[in-house]
Amino acid sequence: MDYRSITRFLGFIMLFIAILMLVPLAIAHAYGEEASYAGFLKTIILMLLVSLAAILSTLSRRGMNIGSKEAVLVVTLTWIVMTAFGALPMYLSGAMDSYAECFFEIMSGFTTAGSTILSDIESLDMSILFWRSLTNWLGGMGVVILFVAVLPIFGVKGNALVGAEAVGPSKSKLTPTIRGTAMALWLIYIGLSVAETLLLLLGGLDWFNALTVMFGTIGAAGFAPISASIAGYHSAYVEWVCIVFMLLAGINFSIFFFLVRGQFRKASSNSELRLYLAFIAISAALISIQLIAKGVYTTVPQAVRQALFHTVSMITTTGFVADEFNAWPMFSQMLLFMLCFIGACSGSAGGGIKVVRIGVMMRLGYNAMLSRIHPNSVSPVSLGAEQIDDKTAFSIAGYIGCYFATLFAGAAVIGLTDMDFLTCFISVFLCLGNLGTGIGGLGSGFSYGAFPDWSLWVFSFLMLAGRLEFYTVYTLFTRTFWRR
């Protein structure tokens, strides 16, 4: 294990985060938020000292020898270190009562879970809210991928790093180099971000609300600067903008790369994209029909908009809310629950199990039924026209096993809080799937504020494991990993 390379990489990551904190520091200064200004300033100074110490102590190393083992440790430590320091401004400013609450809130931001312990979001300073939302945007694409894209001069060999952080079973390169791929993905991400921000500004939102809503949308994360989420803006226009960009954030970003390159056939033939859009279209149609039939909304356009908004919000695990959907008929609620279980596409900003995994597992089940009828037949596992090799199918099955094992084990541990069964189970499910809003009768304004501090550390681990899709984190707990 090359610990010097790991130390050097983490030093540059901390330096990068410290530089980003200058933005909320400037906002705190502009709006006279003295406590927050002091909190950000102290954190930035501390991060600069620690990062410079890490970098200077490894000056003799010109490059970074980061192999597969180092990548697993680096990526996990990166998210932990970012969160540990990122939580300090909230703690030092007195925004929250305990460091555990601050750590949970920022881990929720970086992992794009969108879960919160807050019940009165508007009471926080603007600089704290901005930083809180900015973590959503950074976590959506991945800070390690950004680092590999923009800082190649430090000798980072990024193949293993991107492979350890990128979500979904597919991590193919879009360009000849991994740095070019990372750069392309981030340019697409930034382009979508700029487009949504401009549209929200045109819709009447000020710069602060436009940026923070964009951070939560493009990151498929769900942090909003107001407690009522998107419903608080009382604007059908803002809801439609969020619908479009939540949907786009849930698509594999390689699709946008193909579109930009004019490879429309390659983009449109993607089987996972077709299944993703089919899930959305069918679910939104069924929910719209029930909302209209039950008279939940007085007009058809409103029912369709609300159905589509929450369908897209749930399947992308964004968690934005435009109305109290927990008051909808149970059939509609169950469809929304199923969607957040499915999740978005691999290689997107969204969370959940991912559409491609659900599609492959459905195909495996179908093949198992066929083998009962025709025992000697050979049925390849495929998703549309794309054939899935045995190694990928095995990895997907293993992921599903890890998901449910973690879900039940986590619910059992959280049961020690003496909360009711539904609260324990759903709260763990939300953290694993990186979904912030309450479901299943807990209410869209569900807060983790009622949980004791020790359980917030458990939830933070679950969010990290879910965001890095288990294998990266759990590998660290095996004997094989630490053997030479």
Write the topology of this structure.
Elements: H1 3-20, H2 22-30, H3 34-56, H4 68-86, H5 88-92, H6 99-110, H7 126-141, H8 143-150, H9 159-165, H10 178-202, H11 207-218, H12 236-249, H13 253-260, H14 264-268, H15 271-293, H16 300-315, H17 330-342, H18 355-373, E1 382-383, E2 386-387, H19 390-414, H20 421-432, H21 453-467, H22 471-474, H23 479-482
Antiparallel strand pairs: 1-2
- Unreliable spans are none
Strand order of the largest sheet: 1-2
Reported for the largest beta sheet, the result is:
2 strands, antiparallel
Number of strands: 2
Mean pLDDT, as a whole number? 86
Order of H and E elements: HHHHHHHHHHHHHHHHHHEEHHHHH
> Which structural category fits the helices and strands?
mainly alpha
Approximately how much beta-strand content do the residues carry? Answer: under 5%
What best-fitting shape do the alpha-carbon axes yield? globular
Distance between the termini: 8 Å
Into which percent range does the helicity of residues fall? 55-70%
Overview features:
mainly alpha, 2 strands, 484 residues, 3 domains
Describe the protein's architecture and organization.
This protein is mostly helical. It has 3 domains: 164 residues, no CATH class; 205 residues, no CATH class; 76 residues, no CATH class. Strands 1-2 form a two-stranded antiparallel ribbon. It is globular, with a radius of gyration of 22 Å.
